[in-house]
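Tokens in:
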């Protein structure tokens, strides 16, 4: 199958995934709880909510910059380029990865996502062993690993992350991907609209830079609930090891990173194919 044929197949796979996003698989209890939680959050003064959202957005911007400029990330970027050159010796910088076929780019991205899912699995298992320090570090560590995973996926598809536009785009993808599945479709449509309105040559981001909203609070509350469950099960020891809480922590973090990397991979594949089609 030629490259154009493969791109059409991938677009059909993304379309099927997009349709699946529209399916609200929540139970009646989950829907009732969500409505109750929304009402409770609406009772919080608007000024306090605004301050919280600003703090979250600022923290994400700073965290993104720290990860991007870290030695680990620069080494990872060099590793991507080295792997890409093994497939095509014309590649000298990240933007040159567009010389590769969509399947080759997906292969590079899959190598990165597999690593980050494994990192998340082990980090969740370690969190499940208990301890105040490990438990309190779970949410920020998850943010670091999943943001880094999106940055790596972005570079694997030939999008450098060291300019304002790509930085903001990766943060928007992260915010959309961490939403519950029944809320991801709306975020996905917004990302597609931004792609249609952009010319693909932007350096500065000109859209809405506010990301955190009421759903961000729900996400944090859900993570706190997960950690509470882990603390309950850490007393159930098997041969002196809190095996149950470790399994719950590992499986939960793995599944969450899988959800985020799948969303990011579909976005950057769709973006690349759309840009090639419009040229």
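Residues out:
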């Amino acid at each position: 199958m030629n490259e154009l044929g493969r791109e059409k197949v991938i677009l059909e796979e993304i379309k099927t995934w997009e349709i699946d996003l529209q399916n609200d698989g929540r139970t009646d209890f989950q829907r009732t709880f969500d409505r109750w939680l929304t009402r409770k959050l609406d009772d919080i003064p608007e000024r306090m909510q605004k301050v919280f959202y600003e703090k979250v957005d600022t923290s994400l911007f700073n965290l993104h910059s720290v990860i991007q400029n870290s030695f680990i990330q620069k080494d990872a970027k060099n590793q991507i380029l080295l792997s890409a050159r093994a497939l095509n010796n014309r590649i000298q910088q990240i933007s040159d990865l567009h010389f590769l076929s969509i399947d080759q780019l997906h292969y590079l991205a899959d190598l990165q996502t597999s690593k980050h899912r494994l990192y998340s699995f082990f980090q969740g298992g370690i969190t499940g062993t208990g301890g105040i320090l490990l438990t309190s570090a779970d949410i920020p560590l998850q943010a670091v690993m999943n943001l880094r995973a999106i940055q790596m996926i972005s570079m694997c598809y030939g999008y450098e992350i060291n300019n304002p536009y790509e930085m903001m785009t990766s943060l928007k993808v992260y915010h959309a991907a961490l939403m519950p599945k029944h809320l991801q479709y709306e975020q996905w449509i917004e990302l597609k609209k931004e792609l249609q309105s952009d010319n693909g040559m932007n350096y500065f981001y000109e859209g809405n830079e506010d990301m955190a909203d009421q759903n961000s609070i729900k996400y944090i509350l859900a993570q706190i609930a997960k950690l509470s469950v882990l603390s309950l099960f850490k007393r159930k020891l098997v041969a002196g090891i809190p095996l149950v809480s470790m399994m719950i922590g590992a499986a939960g973090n793995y599944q969450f990173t899988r959800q985020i990397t799948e969303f990011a991979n579909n976005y950057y594949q769709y973006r690349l194919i759309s840009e090639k089609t419009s040229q």
